[in-house]
Each structure stands twice: as structure tokens, then as C-alpha cells.
Amino acid sequence: MKAETDICIIGAGPVGLFAVFELGLLDMKCHLIDILDRPGGQCAELYPEKPIYDIPAYPIISGQELTDKLMEQIAPFDPVFHFDQMAIRLEKLEESERFPQGGWRVTTDQDAVIDCKVVVIAAGGGSFTPKKPALEGIEDYEGSSVFYSVRQMEKFRGKNILIAGGGDSALDWTLNLQPLAASTGLIHHRDGFRAAPDSVNKMEKLVADGKVAKHIAKLKALKGSNGQLEAVIAGSKETGDFEIPCDTLLAFYGLTMKLGPVGGFGYEVKDGLIPVDTEKFETSTPGIFAIGDINWYPGKLKLILSGFHEAALMAQQAFRICFPDRRLRFQYTTSSTDLHNKLGVAAE
Ligand code: FAD
Fold this sequence. Notes:
The chain has two domains: 2-128 and 256-343, 3-Layer(bba) Sandwich (FAD/NAD(P)-binding domain), CATH 3.50.50.60; 132-253, FAD/NAD(P)-binding domain. Helix 4 packs across helix 5. Strands 1, 2, 5, 6, 7, 8 and 20 form a seven-stranded mixed sheet that branches. Strands 10-17-11-12-13 form a five-stranded parallel sheet, with helices on one face. 22% of the residues lie in helices and 29% in strands. The protein has 348 residues and is an alpha/beta fold. It has seven helices and 21 strands. The mean pLDDT is 93. Flavin-adenine dinucleotide (FAD) is lined by residues 10-16, 33-36, 41-43, 46-47, 50, 52, 54, 86-87, 122-128, 260-262, 292-293, 302-305, 307. Residues 10-16, 33-36, 41-43, 46-47, 50, 52, 54, 86-87, 122-128, 260-262, 292-293, 302-305, 307 line the site of flavin-adenine dinucleotide.
């Protein structure tokens, strides 16, 4: 996939999402890349149901509700999302007709290539990385028989799948993949699941109907050759070791955050954070900005509120880069007829 846009935002957390609004107000089009399969960053992934109390004008709002509201707010600006993809490379583009000032090429691990005028790093605490089961030689099977996310369900059609984990992801994928798979197993170290009660009930029904094999045991070893899994060795005190035949293992043990590729894109990085100025929130490389939890400046607070402010100021400088011939006119959203029209609200 190849695309051209004004702005490429790496990270679709709350701050990356709000940046779309601030940039959209100034006529800039955005593409967003995120490793996760949906927007919201930490709010959606780490605490979707937790109440947040310090979002202005919302005395209380959950992480997921805030994400949903931000998506609603930016919808009129038609952002393009590239989910399930990690931005892995950033290259400078020479000056051209489309990019008279030069531009940037962002490439993802799914081979999406996005050419843009400005890059905004809104990568928060960094990339969410799956926690892996501690199994000897597991790397040999990764990508062929062992997976930590489902990017295309079709890939798993007709497979003999074993799903490991006890949370929402493990249960959701058990329910979603079971109709496609030749056989489905679920393995968890204890007979208690930390998932939505409805999902647990549905899974138990599939187990009772003989459609899912539930194993209460720990993963101990992998059996196979040349990256092709043949079985998993599992075991518990009660059962001793036993073999579960399968050709695919999907492990959902949660996620950790690592700085990842955005730490190696050429600008200054200090103690895992990207130093920026507090006027434009630009990194040490002109044309690349950093907003939200990923940046650092004296007095920085890792709050959603701070990220929103940073997005507003970043957008002003991004405008100057995107439209060097246009005059930047400061306008309240309340007095912009353009915006009223765009948002479908009758101008007063
Ligand atoms: P994030 O939310 O971290 O989003 C960054 C996104 O970038 C992620 O989705 C990640 O997958 C993606 N990404 C990173 N690298 C790449 C890459 N190379 N390619 C593609 N995608 C990438 N803040 C408050 O203001 N109030 C609160 O009450 C509050 N409560 C919190 C409670 C908890 C339990 C936690 C963990 C945090 C809380 N926070 C709170 C902090 C708040 O969630 C963060 O400040 C906020 O999420 C930062 O937003 P962000 O968009 O900068 O980053």
C-alpha cells in the first residue's frame, strides 16, 4: 500500500487522535499508524473501563468513552488509519513538485509506505509489545506457527489452533476463530478467566458442546520442526505432562510497552523520551514533531490534557511547513463558518 498525505501521525492514542482535529482545523489531512488493532492507545488497551476525572468538561469519563468521543470529533476530517502495523522506518524525501520543501517517507512492518510533508510522533510509552511465553526455541516458530495477534482471520481457516491465555483477547479469539478452525483448544493455568463474563459463558458453552477443548495447565514446550508446530507439551500437578496436537499456537499473555523503532529515527532521544521545544513541540529534526507521553521538556506532565495542548501548538508549525505560501490566521472554532459547514452544524 502506498499513500501520500500532509501529515503522518505515528500512534493513534488520545493525543494522536486529537492532533487530527487540530490539524484538520487548519486544512491538513492525516494518516495514522498504530500497532494496535484499534484507536485509543493506553486508554483503550490498558484501562478502557477505568474512570478518568481530569478531562475538561467531563467530570468522569472512561478510557473507552474518551476514545469514542475523540473518534466522533475527528470523523469530519476523514483520517486514514493503518492499524495492526508498526512504523519501522523514516526516510527523508528529496524536494519534488508534491513536496517542494522535501518530505518524509514512513514505512510499516506491513509494507505500507506513506509519503508526507510532516511527521508527528505520538507514540506514547512506545510500542505495545506482546509478552511471550517462556518456551525454549519459540522464536523458530514465530510468524509461521506461533502468533501473538490476529491480523487476518482467514489465515487461520482450517488450522488446528491452541489459544493460550485467560483474558479478553484469548477469549475473544477463541470465540471468533472456532467457527473457522479445524479444531480449537484453549489453555490457561487456572480455571478462572479475567474476561467479560459474557465471553466466558459463551466459551464454556462451546466447551460443553465439544467444540472447544479447555486445558487447565501450563505450556511447557513446543514440538515440531522447521518452524512447523506439531504439538504443545503442557502440564499441571494434577495431570502431569501431556501433549496437545496443534499446528498453530496463539498466545495472548498481555502487552508491555517498549520505545521501539521511534527511538531510532535520527532525532535526539534522551532516557527513552524525545526532547522537544515548548513553542512548536518539534524534535531536533525540523519537520518531525513529538507530542504526548513520548516527548520531554522541562515541567512535562504525562497527562492527556498536556498532550492535547501540545497538539494545538504543533499544528500551527505543521501548517507553516505544509502551506508555506498561506497566511496562518488564528480563529476560534466558534467563529469559523468553514468549520460549522464541515461539522454539519448550521452557522449561527
Ligand atoms: P498512548 O496512549 O501511549 O498511545 C500511543 C500509541 O502509539 C499506542 O497505541 C502505540 O501502540 C502506538 N505506537 C507506538 N509506537 C508505534 C510505532 N512504532 N508504530 C505504530 N504505533 C506505535 N492520564 C490522564 O490524563 N488522566 C488519568 O486519569 C490517567 N489515568 C491513567 C491510568 C492508567 C492505568 C494509565 C496506564 C495511564 C493513565 N493516564 C492518565 C495516562 C494517559 O493514558 C497517557 O498520558 C495517554 O494515554 C498518553 O497518550 P498518547 O497518545 O501520548 O500515548
